[in-house]
Known about the structure:
Strand content: 15-25%
Largest sheet: 4 strands, mixed
Low-confidence stretches: none
Amino acid sequence: MNNVIIYTQDQCPPCQFVKQYFNEKNVAFTEKNIKNQTFKSELIDLDSFSTPTVLINDKVYYQVDIDAFNKALGIE
């Protein structure tokens, strides 16, 4: 089972896109909205200052890269 975390924020179209894509592909994920200060601190600890930042099995993706997501998740 893959461990997927998406750091998001409100009013973020790329965040919505990634969540919708994972839902369509039946990929379970945990959403962490950075309006929560704890999640914002976690994001900064990952050396990221933008959303969406995606973690797949502890590998950080700093931009929306569907091909990389598919490869990491074994999606054809």
